[in-house]
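Hi, here's the filled form for the chain we discussed.

Project: internal
Contact: R.S.
Residues: 236
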Amino acid sequence: MTNDELLATLKQAFDTFLRTGSRSNQKLKVLHPKIANDILSLLGEEYSVQSLGIRDGREAQMPGRYFDKKVDITFYKGDQPVAGLGVKMVMQNYAQNANNYFENMLGETANLRSNTIPYFQLFAIPDRLPHYNNKNHIIGWEVMDEHYINKYFIMSQDDPGSFMHTPTKTLLFVYHIPDAPVEPTTKQEYQDYYLQHLPNLDLTLSPQRHAAFGSTVIFNDYRAFIEKVAHYILSI
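And the returned structure, exactly as it came back:
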């Protein structure tokens, strides 16, 4: 349940992403079971979990206030769903979708938490990632800097008891993929380089430093997040 373990799993998921493409959910079948089982190990025998790669390998549907929602990871006490966790792993073209990712997260959180279901979020993203045009040429490199971090900093100051759109707890996990010595210029060059060299590369925590977050957002501390999620579920 350490940062290094999560980084190793993200490396496996990155490798799967390179092999299967952005439209495939195969990378999530690597990541979701790791997170789900780490939390489950702290909950005890009366709890179980449903996610991609666990049980029947499908996401469970949870009852929201406005509509039912498939949830990435669902925790049960006996047969009763008691909490959900959403996972987002972004690998490319973040800037054009950044607001949509955030708005969707707020919406799905409000829908579930308004129905008295605790909901957690884990957002994992490299600190530097490629931006492709419609011909799969790399037209720039996006950096996960203060501009993108700020919305999570603001959210970290929210009181979840007052704001149903605020997740019960969020992990913002920003990591670094070692740069290629010669920058690739196309998606194919990017895939070819990392498929060849990834076995000998280690993902690391991003060296970026940010202002201290409020209590609802945990930055780059996987163990703290897992323990707080488990503690909250046990308190229900």
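Let me know if anything looks off before we file it.
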